[in-house]
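G., before I forget:
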Amino acid sequence: MRGLALLSQQGLGRVSSGKLADFVNVNSWQIRKDFSYFGDFGTRGVGYDIANLARQIKKILNLDAGHKTALVGVGNLGSAVLAYPGFGTYGFSITAVFDNDPAKVGKKINNVTVEDISRLDSLVKRQIDLAIIAVPEQAAQAVADLLVMHGIKGILNFSPRRITVPKKIKVITIDIATDLARLPYYIPSS
Amino acid sequence: MRGLALLSQQGLGRVSSGKLADFVNVNSWQIRKDFSYFGDFGTRGVGYDIANLARQIKKILNLDAGHKTALVGVGNLGSAVLAYPGFGTYGFSITAVFDNDPAKVGKKINNVTVEDISRLDSLVKRQIDLAIIAVPEQAAQAVADLLVMHGIKGILNFSPRRITVPKKIKVITIDIATDLARLPYYIPSS
DNA sequence: CTATGTGAATTTATTCACAGCA
DNA sequence: TGCTGTGAATAAATTCACATAG
């Protein structure tokens, strides 16, 4: 169930077989079970065709629906997200970038021009329905409200502040501190 | 089981009761069940004492063991991590920062001086056993090897590249692209 | 003979309902 | 009377074993 997303990482054409099991560090039957939930797209006695597999996974994750993504906040974190490699693997990239700092508006970063935050109202027209929030925590909720108001359907939130949105909107929060705090739990007290 | 880490977020003294349940968006019995796995530290008819609760959680997560953390890589991502608020909530902060760029070595960022990557050998002496990798993906594995060699026990990895370490070392990988890719799955195809 | 797909068994987590202490 | 702690019931995910297609 969980390994699915990870799998598409090696989307590039490569060998095919249930040995991608140990590539994602799970046992082979987990792969088969997970796949069988969505239908069978493997050939018995042979394995899985990478190209077809990638296509199927994209369909499952709705990645072929052509979702466009906006990034709000071009501080250190925002810049890092923009430069993040691996978005290409999933077939979608960041289409628009917003910030409220006049010094940044108009600049080009990674081939995308930073726009003023007031231009968020163009999201609907541009059919952008995903957004990444990379602003200071004080501003996170306000930005989220704006995004929702302008038709965003899913938000990836980097601020440690919990944001509240209508329950129709899907939010995934990445709290670095929380993840780091989980680490000591697995470490023997020395 | 899962809500535990999230809970310590509001570590600051505050009201006490099972209503922190809806604060973390779970039902009240989940809180109680999760807590009861580690022993009972609530008073019947009253609730939980925040101060004591925070102390207990820290003990469970091994946060009171005084783990020190090093950050490797002071690019956009590294800087963002350094500036990330919320680490204080968990009682630990980043003790050392490393980079291989001579232009950055010696600079002070957020009260921590950037050291050359070759100084990683001082980790053992300084009793640093956690590390955050925020370097370009090509360098991730090499840095991980170095860290392991110098006694790091847990790694928070931001690169989309899968890194391999001895299985005694705990690695938590944060792959922004994967998280973002999960988003469309929950969105109606419109 | 190889590697998939899937029902059945086992283990784990979630939810409920209620007893017990303040 | 209110809120915690916990055993029992329910649901879900893991693991196994094996039939089946290529």
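The first strand of chain B starts at residue 68 and ends at 72. Residues 1, 27, 29-30, 33, 43-46 of chain B lie near DNA strand C (CB under 10 Å from a C1').

More on Monday.
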